[in-house]
UniProtKB/TrEMBL annotation:
PROSITE patterns: HIS_KIN, PAC, PAS. CDD domains: HATPase (cd00075), HisKA (cd00082), PAS (cd00130). The lineage of its organism: Bacteria, Pseudomonadati, Deferribacterota, Deferribacteres, Deferribacterales. Residues 137-181 form the PAS domain. This is histidine kinase. Keywords: Kinase, Phosphoprotein, Transferase. Its EC number is 2.7.13.3. It comes from Geovibrio thiophilus. Signal peptide: none annotated.
């Protein structure tokens, strides 16, 4: 075996160490396992310190590859393992402030130079045939890597660059000396995020090959794209280094982008052309469908005839109008005549023949009978096409089914006549104004109401009927006509030139129409009706007063009964005063007691008269009142009188919130008194004065109304008269009844109090239910 000193101590290795030291400024040397110098660069005096440093160094520091000297310098060492030879070390020295990572990378590079030289020397020494072959192969591989047209990078397991081939500089612009000992941060362009690099490291540290694209940055700052394969180098089962093989694909990517852009442009052009063709086809189809639909809606079917061959074409709608099945050609003359109404066949035959002789007419109407028996009216409209010589050679036309139009015109004419008849005979006055409030038409009743004849169309409404302005509501009407605002059932009164007052119910409407806007005024003369209504109100007032007088008689009876006992008491106390005075037994104390008792009775009698006077106070000053208090007052007023007739009034008033209702308090009490009097009469008639008569008065309320029920045990209302009891002058009491009590009660409840009153039978008696609305603010 060749001696290690002979293999390693060569001029070639020494020269390479000197070149490295000169270029990097770092003295380099090769040492044995004990630190002895094997080879060093010329002038490297620092290598002499390493044996003693080795001797004093701890094993851990040797393994880490960093040894410090006593003068403050640092040796970076890297072990070199060669089969069948002891371990040797490459060493570089620095006394400058230099990153350890870069210094250790320099030592690794010296190891690579040393291994190359050793390999060459071993081959020369013919260490062994197999080893020579391997070394020869290693040299070939080294030359291949060095001369490769792709970038090859070797890093340690932490990513520090230990080797790059010459093409790396051509690709990136960084030389070996600038990049070895560093990482890849100088190449990063910022295009990749942390997740990208995390995935890369995770892949290769798991012993797998990572393949992907880098967008990196060259030394001059320009970006480039490289396709990279990074694989782990495994020695003795552990990952010691990583090798990356990178190919510049910037131009390929650019061409690929151009190709993709060209493809996109081509696809867009094809898509645009295709879309245009599709759109054109869709428009053509839509136009054809629209034509078919238009023909169907318009009831028009196209047709064509060649004057030379007499052959033709009909559209689908033309066949449909005649009720024929679709055929490849137009129907024959015989088929057309068969479909024609028998009474029109001769003139149709003559018309068809005239078509081919160039008929100057351009329209022809006739009737057909469809297969289902329906008669239709057809108008055929046509024109000619001429050749270069001016001779007609083709007829183009349409068959227009005008049946509906003609029938509609007939209906319109009929409706116009009917409308004219209605306007002439209407009981209401009707006036139609145009958009400028000029008269378009009026009916006779309108002229009659306003006392005019032959109102001129086109005249301004206020000029034709100036008396309409003689009204307190003239401004409201003028605004409604000016602004085209509808007005419904307005009571409008004005004075005629004669001074007579007219009262109308007037409506102003603005009909929706496609034609020019119009305003419709309708008026009804209610002058006579208003007078009758006023008379009716007077009569009702008289009836109410008559009912009140009847109640007056009832109340006088009440007062008579209520005064009888106080008068007896006053008489008794007066006699006591006289008797005691004559017997000289009257003293001041007794006198005061008797006078106080007499004054109490007189006060009671005075209050009775006051209640009576309030009850019959005229007028309807109240708008709303508290209903439960009014009920308590009327019950208190009549309870004693009814008790004398052996009838008990049982109030059950649950209106705890004291609700208000619409109307007059006195009129309400009159209604309650009428109902109580009817109940009293029914009980008296049934019981004949016997005890046991009961009248129950209840008051309840809901969210929007108060309900008062008056129920007696007087036998109820006979079924035959139940529907008539609220009619005026209807009575079941014979000559003792007036027949207006319940009528007036219903009138007051419904008209004056916005409520209702009903009657029904229940448990051997009658029940009258009075429902009164609460004012809105109480809801």
């Amino acid at each position: 075996m060749t001696n290690l000193n002979e293999l390693i101590n060569t001029n070639k290795l020494k020269k390479q160490l000197e070149q490295f030291s000169e270029f990097s400024g770092l003295p380099a040397s090769i040492h044995g396992a004990d630190g002895n110098i094997l080879v060093k660069a010329e002038g490297n005096t620092f290598a002499d310190m390493l044996p003693s440093v080795f001797k004093n160094a701890e094993a851990e520091n040797i393994i880490k590859g960093v040894l410090k000297t006593e003068n403050g310098g640092i040796f970076a060492i890297n072990s070199i393992e060669i089969d069948n030879f002891p371990t040797i070390f490459s060493a570089v020295y620095s006394d400058r402030d230099m990153p350890l990572k870069k210094l250790k990378s320099a030592a690794a590079y010296v190891s690579t130079l040393t291994e190359g030289c050793l390999a060459g020397n071993l081959v020369s020494a013919a260490h062994s045939d197999l080893y020579c072959d391997n070394v020869r192969m290693l040299r070939t591989f080294y030359a291949t890597v060095e001369q490769s047209p792709i970038s090859i990078v070797v890093t340690d397991k932490n990513g520090t660059i230990e080797y790059v081939n010459p093409f790396f500089k051509e690709l990136t612009g960084f030389s070996r000396e600038e990049i070895i000992g560093l990482g890849f941060s100088g190449l990063k362009s910022g295009e990749h995020d942390r997740e990208f690099y995390k995935n890369l490291w995770q892949t290769i540290r798991n012993g797998k090959i990572w393949t992907g694209k880098f967008i990196n940055k060259k030394k001059d700052g320009s970006k480039y794209i490289e396709l990279a394969k990074i694989a782990p180098i495994i020695e003795s089962g552990e990952i010691t280094r990583f090798i990356g093989i990178k190919t510049d694909i910037t131009e390929q990517e650019r061409l690929q982008e151009l190709l993709e852009e060209s493809n996109l442009m081509l696809e867009a052009t094809v898509r645009k052309r295709t879309e245009k063709l599709r759109s054109a086809y869709i428009r053509l189809k839509e136009n054809r469908d629209l034509l078919n639909k238009t023909q169907k809606v318009a009831r028009m079917g196209g047709w064509m005839r060649d004057m030379r061959t007499r052959k033709g074409f009909w559209t689908d709608e033309a066949f449909a109008i005649f009720g024929m099945e679709r055929g490849p050609e137009a129907p024959t003359v015989k088929e057309i005549l068969t479909a024609t109404h028998p009474e029109d066949r001769d003139k149709v035959r003559e018309w068809l023949e005239s078509l081919f002789r160039y008929s100057p007419e351009r329209e022809f109407s006739f009737r057909i009978i469809r297969p289902d028996g329906e008669e239709r009216i057809i108008t055929s409209i046509y024109s000619y096409d001429f050749d270069a010589s001016g001779k007609p050679y083709r007829i183009n036309g349409i068959h227009h089914d005008q049946t509906e139009r003609i029938r509609t015109a007939e209906r319109i004419e009929k409706h116009e006549k009917l409308l004219s008849s209605i306007l002439l005979s209407a009981n209401a006055g009707i006036c139609v104004l145009d958009g400028d409030c000029r008269i378009e038409m009026v009916n006779p009743e309108f002229e009659k109401i306003f006392g005019h004849k032959n109102l001129t169309a086109g005249s301004l409404f206020v000029d034709a009927c100036p008396e309409i302005l003689n009204s307190r509501d003239a401004g409201i009407l003028s605004d409604a006509l000016r602004t085209k605002t509808p007005m419904t059932r307005m009571e409008y009164s004005f004075s005629l030139p004669s001074g007579k007052e007219k009262i109308l119910i007037m409506n102003v409407t603005v009909p929706r129409a496609d034609h020019d806007p119009v305003t419709l005024i309708t008026v009804s003369d209610i002058t006579e009706l208003s007078e009758l209504h006023n008379k009716q109100k007077e009569q009702e007032a008289m009836l109410i007063q008559q009912s009140k007088m009847a109640a007056l008689g009832e109340m006088i009876g009440v007062i008579t009964h209520q005064w009888q006992q106080p008068l007896n008491a006053v008489g008794m106390f007066s006699q006591l005063i006289e008797t005691e005075f004559k017997s000289s037994e009257l003293n001041a104390e007794n006198l005061r007691e008797y006078i106080s008792a007499i004054m109490g009775q007189l006060e009671f009698m005075s209050q009775t008269v006051k209640d009576f006077r309030n009850f019959f106070k005229p007028g309807q000053a109240d708008d709303r009142f508290e209903v439960s208090a009014a009920l308590e007052e009327i019950i208190s007023l009549v309870a004693v009188h009814y008790a004398n007739s052996r009838i008990e009034i049982l109030p059950d008033l649950h209106c705890t919130d004291k609700p208000l209702v619409y109307g007059s308090r006195n009129e309400f009490k009159q209604v309650i008194l009428n109902l109580l009097a009817n109940a009293k009469d029914a009980i008296t008639d049934k019981l004949k004065g016997a005890a046991g008569g009961v009248i129950r008065v209840s008051c309840t309320e809901t969210g929007d109304e108060v309900i008062i029920r008056i129920r007696d045990n007087g036998g109820g209302i006979p079924e035959g008269v139940k529907d008539s009891i609220f009619k005026s002058y209807f009575t079941t009491k014979g000559s003792s009844g007036t027949g207006i009590g319940l009528y007036i009660s219903k009138l007051i409840a419904e008209t004056h109090m916005k409520g209702s009153i009903t009657a029904e039978n229940e448990e051997g008696g009658a029940v009258f239910t009075l429902r009164l609305k609460k004012p809105f603010q109480d809801l």
